[in-house]
UniProtKB/TrEMBL annotation:
Presence of keyword Transport: yes
UniProt KW Ion transport keyword: yes
Taxon lineage: Bacteria, Pseudomonadati, Chlorobiota, Chlorobiia, Chlorobiales
Record-linked InterPro entries: Beta-barrel_TonB_sf, TonB-dep_rcpt-like
Highest taxon, organism lineage: Bacteria
Classification via PANTHER family: CATECHOLATE SIDEROPHORE RECEPTOR FIU (PTHR32552:SF89), FERRICHROME IRON RECEPTOR-RELATED (PTHR32552)
GO CC terms: cell outer membrane
Subcellular location as annotated: Cell outer membrane
Organism for this UniProt entry: Chlorobium luteolum (strain DSM 273 / BCRC 81028 / 2530)
Protein name according to UniProt: TonB-dependent receptor, putative
Topology in the lipid bilayer: Multi-pass membrane protein
A molecular function (GO) term: siderophore uptake transmembrane transporter activity
Similarity comment: family membership: Belongs to the TonB-dependent receptor family.
Keywords, in A-Z order: Cell outer membrane, Ion transport, Iron, Iron transport, Membrane, Receptor, Signal, Transmembrane, Transmembrane beta strand, Transport
Length: 730
């Protein structure tokens, strides 16, 4: 950091709209546009930060204020309460049963959750990955949730010339991944296409079980004229995943034991590894019809569809001393249409459009079945824990975004109108018969009115954003931004079902709690600067956020019950710094630092007796490190690049009372890549990737709520892992 600050005297000329941060090597480019409140990861491949190329979340984890944790070095079996284990600025974007992910593709919300959609895209097929944190333009981050941040992946189009990319990776724990992509090149009449496929397999690094995933992708582009182009993309994926066993705080406190403890190999135990797995099959198809209506205007129409079928099996403890195996069958789809028109009115760049999106449950779940295990090692059906109807979330989202520049100023702002309807939920009283979900519904079971919400819940609200940028000179600018984000939680349904007797005894129906749902909103303020010289750049940012209707598990005196509600207030603020420095042609440096505070702004009601309030005001929320620092060097010696990487994360807590402390950790990785054109290939790359070089034992994933310790669970980080890759580009 000292040499970066010392380098600020070396300022040089650069265009006002140029990127503020640029780290470039043969393997990856990291860039950012703080004036536009976004950052990008681009390049031929992002193999340095994510050698397995299966997890978008591993690629972006060098960014400031982004806490990404993992138990699986390859990203195949990273499962924590059915959602991604990372936070933007201390905010867990998908907590509370949010039925969407933080990742969009081509601006479309085609990665739903729960289910198998997290790793269905091979990152070699992605051209750009853009990260939005805090304030984001109205035409970005479309979908059911924007709180915390959003990731947008752009697909690598078919190339103009014929090409073949082949990659083979092997690694620790029998890891193997084969990737192949063939580009047709120009076929005549503006037609181009590509097809790609990958197959991946890895044993777990502890315990029994393995994971595999097979992906296919097809893309086609047809240019009918200078003004009309049609693109279409199809993705198929199928995977079987054996996750790692979640551990208690007492278990994780002994790290040496935690690094060997996993599921049982005894088939008569409910903790058997093969009773804890998930299997999903996914289809995704999208299209983009682009019509240029003028020299500076165009219309894009993007229909999309995603189908997800599979199941989760896992060991649960519904009551102390009782263990069962639960099967959660998942069969849902989502579909929608984005129409967007961009044009220029005088000196104003204008973009407006409309998104229609509908998405079937789950979440919340529509089917849970419980099993016991016989002495012969067979699963014995016990009961239906949940059986409910098929229903859908529905979103209508028109937006408008404008940008205007005058002199040394640029103004960008927009409005996004969100009309979001939660699904109705009809709960059935199903007999203890082990049949399929469709057969169960066909048996015409009786309706349990007290556990149902037949009336849908709709939220309607306008979300503004505004950014003012002042260009001080050609290489320095400062921006001030304001924007609002949103999220809606749906985990109240399984919570109610699990505690239904207590609610019903107190005269509380599920419809009452469904009606009491509120949309959590966040008001974000940001002040940032970007400076750039001939061989360095620096981007400091400070931010402040106010969260209203934040979800927490609270005591409701009106209903005399404790459950997840949206009436807590929270605040966040922090400092971010990104910098890069290139002291010579062969040495490049990148670093980021962040200080993030995210906390409840009030004491929280706990229950009706004993200690009715818990003074958590000002305390950091669980699983949110206050300090993070990350750095990466790339030194080139002829055809060889050596890239050491370091990541530091400070103390975290597994509970809001800060009684379950997790020490900070520093982890080192190393990538060595030899690359040159040879033997008729455009390039041949040979890479050796070392993850957790010093075999550091530390706690990675924490699965918790932002309030209390509702069965908080923990996972150790992956030990030392070695990967070797050979890639041929023809």
């Amino acid at each position: 950091m000292a040499f970066l600050l010392a380098a600020t005297a070396q300022a040089a000329e650069t265009a006002p709209d140029s990127t503020v941060i640029r780290f470039t090597s043969e393997e990856i480019t990291v860039s950012g546009q703080k004036g536009d409140i976004l950052q990008q990861v681009t390049g031929s491949e992002s193999a340095v930060l994510n050698p397995s190329q299966m997890s978008v979340y591993k690629v972006i984890n060098m960014m400031p204020s982004l806490s990404q944790q993992s138990v699986d070095p390859y990203g195949l079996a990273d499962i924590s309460n059915y959602h991604e284990a990372f936070k933007f600025r201390g905010v867990e974007a998908t907590a509370g049963g949010v039925p969407s992910t933080t990742a969009n593709v081509e601006g479309l919300p085609v990665t739903g959750r729960p289910g198998g959609g997290a790793t269905i895209y091979d990152l070699e097929n992605m051209q750009n990955i853009t990260i939005y944190t805090g304030v984001m333009p109205a035409n970005k981050g479309l979908g059911l949730s924007t709180v915390g941040g959003k990731i947008d992946m752009e697909i690598k189009r078919p190339t103009d010339t014929f090409g073949v990319d082949v990659k083979q990776t092997v690694g620790s724990n029998d890891f193997s991944r084969t990737y192949l992509r063939v580009d047709s090149g120009e076929l005549g009449s503006g037609l181009k296409a590509f097809v790609s496929g990958s197959t991946s397999y890895a044993d777990k690094w502890k315990g029994e079980g393995s994971s595999n995933r097979n992906n296919l992708m097809f893309g086609i582009s047809e240019t009918f004229s200078d003004r009309v182009k049609l693109e279409a993309f199809l993705t198929y994926s199928k995977g079987l995943i054996h996750p790692y066993r979640a551990l208690s705080y007492a278990e994780i406190s002994n790290l040496e034991t935690a690094y060997s403890k996993d599921y049982s190999t005894d088939p008569t135990s409910v903790w058997h590894y093969d009773y804890n797995k998930n299997e999903f099959e996914d289809w995704m198809v999208m299209a983009n019809l682009e019509i240029k209506t003028g020299d500076s205007s165009k219309l894009n129409i993007k229909p999309y569809y995603w189908s997800d079928k599979g199941y989760y099996m896992e060991t649960i403890t519904p009551t102390p001393g009782t263990n069962l195996v639960r099967e959660w069958d998942v069969e849902h789809d989502l579909k929608g249409l984005l129409a967007e028109y961009s044009t220029k009115l005088g000196d104003i760049d204008l973009d407006f459009g409309y998104l229609f999106h509908t998405q079937e449950r789950p979440g919340p779940p529509s089917s849970w079945k419980n099993y016991t295990v016989s002495t012969a090692g067979d699963l014995v059906f016990k009961n239906w824990s949940i059986l409910s109807n098929t229903s859908s979330h529905e979103l209508h989202e028109p937006f408008i975004e404008a940008k205007y520049s005058t002199g040394n100023y640029r103004i960008e702002g927009g409005l996004k109108y969100v009309n979001y309807t939660l699904p109705s939920i009809i709960t059935y009283d199903m007999a203890a018969v082990d049949v399929s979900y469709d057969e169960a519904l066909a048996s015409n079971p009786s309706i349990d009115a007290s556990r149902s919400a037949t009336a849908a819940k709709t939220f309607s609200r306008v979300f503004p954003n505004l950014t003012l940028t002042r260009f001080i000179n050609d290489d320095t600018s400062i921006h001030l931004a304001y924007g609002e984000n949103y999220v809606t939680h749906v985990d109240i349904y399984p919570y109610f079902i699990s505690n239904a007797k207590n609610f019903i005894t107190n005269g509380i129906t599920f419809q009452e709690l469904w009606d009491a749902r509120e949309m959590e909103t966040a008001q974000n303020f940001e002040l940032g600067m970007k400076m750039k010289g001939t061989n360095w750049s620096l981007a400091p940012t400070i931010y402040y956020a106010i969260h209203n209707h934040k979800q927490a598990v609270l005591y409701d005196p009106a209903l005399n019950a404790t459950y997840p509600m949206n009436n807590a207030d929270a605040k966040g603020y922090g400092v971010e710094l990104e910098a890069d420095y290139k002291p010579s042609r062969d040495l490049k440096c990148y670093g980021s630092f962040s200080w993030n505070r995210f906390y409840f702004d009030q004491a929280i009601a706990s229950d009706a007796s004993g200690n009715p309030t818990i003074d958590v005001k000002g305390d950091q929320v669980p699983d949110a490190p206050e300090f993070m620092a990350k750095g990466m060097l790339s030194y080139r010696m002829g055809d060889v690049s050596i890239s050491p990487i370091v990541r530091y994360s400070s103390v975290r807590y597994g509970d809001v009372l800060h009684e379950e402390k997790i020490d900070g950790a520093t982890v080192f990785d190393l990538d060595i890549t030899w690359s040159r054109p040879m033997l008729g290939f455009k390039n041949v790359d040979c890479s050796l990737s070392l993850i957790n070089v010093f075999d550091k034992q530390y706690v990675s994933m924490i699965s918790t709520s932002d309030y209390k310790t509702m069965k908080t669970s923990y996972q150790p980080g992956a030990p030392f892992t070695l990967m070797a890759t050979l890639a041929l580009h023809y």
